[in-house]
Amino acid sequence: MSLDKHRLGHNFGRRAAGYHRYALVQGVMAEQLLADLKQHGRQYSRILEIGCGVGHYTQMLRRAFPEALITAVDLAPAAIQVARQRLAAERNIEWLTADGEEIVRGRFDLITANSVFQWLSQPDRACRLYWQSLQPGGCLAFTTLGPRTFSELATSLVRASQKFPGLRLPEVSAQTFAAAPNWRNCMAQAGFEQIVVHEELRLEYHPDFWNLLRAIQGMGATSTRPTFIPKRLLTAAEEYYERNYRRNGCIPASYEVIRVQGVKN
């Protein structure tokens, strides 16, 4: 997937302060990921978190592994600033503004990320880099979103665009996200063993179409190649979405949640 990393960082950075208000599914994903890690009963001493955002998962890691030195990395300086302020009282957290695909300092026994790896531009290369940066016996554990995320929105836009043949179909970024089998192959090719992949479809409910769009925008999860979307196209998409998906006073939005773990033996 071709990504404008500068725009990606800008998208998330400018939504940093309000991100957690909208990213409810991502919060559940973090809890599931941490439960997977704690199930093994291991204590990690050096943790690298890729894409820490405003530090909500960082705080969970801090509580779960109180003695660990955590290096928390994010593309967006604004997000790092919010995270640093939120967790100012916490010790042994190093904050680093950097591209997690490019800069990894030190050797770690856990590399982890919550709802970030769908934005990797070179996942094969990144997984190899993380394998190299782990101590023997170290673990790479992450959640990511799959290509069925926002499938209702993607379908509604496609159907709406059929009414306006001359208009360019807007991009739904999630359609380019890697699927679970791709992640398993990526981990295996990087050298990981004991690979475990879970996937599930979760639904989040919104009162209407425009509320959904505001939530996506509020998370910063918008395209890195934005195009102008005419109001008439969005109105037609709203009509299709409402007609085909509304149930019990709400419309659903699908999130394909993928959890992955692998060990460097």
Core attributes:
single chain; 265 residues; alpha/beta; elongated
- Unreliable stretches, pLDDT < 50, 5 or more residues? none
| Rg result | 19 Å
Structural class category: alpha/beta
Largest sheet: 7 strands, mixed
How many beta-strand elements?
7
Q: Give the overall shape, derived from the CA principal axes.
A: elongated
Q: Approximately how much beta-strand content do the residues carry?
A: 15-25%
Average the pLDDT over all residues and give the rounded result: 90
Number of helices: 10
CA distance, first residue to last residue: 30 Å
User: What spatial order of strands do you see in the largest sheet?
Assistant: 3-2-1-4-5-7-6
Helical amount among residues, as a percent range? 40-55%
Order of helices and strands: HHHEHEHEEHEHHEHHE
Write up what this structure looks like.
By secondary structure, the protein is an alpha/beta fold. The chain contains ten helices and seven strands. A seven-stranded mixed beta sheet has the order 3-2-1-4-5-7-6, sandwiched between helices. Helix 4 (56-64) links the parallel strand 1 (46-50) and strand 2 (69-74). Helix 3 (24-39) packs parallel to helix 4 (56-64), helix 6 crosses helix 8 (180-190) and helix 7 packs across helix 10 (231-245). The longest helix has 16 residues, at 24-39.
Short account of what is shown:
This protein has 265 residues and is of the alpha/beta class. The chain has helices at 5-13, 19-22, 24-39, 56-64, 77-86, 123-133, 151-161, 180-190, 209-219, 231-245; strands spanning 46-50, 69-74, 93-97, 108-113, 134-145, 193-206, 251-263.
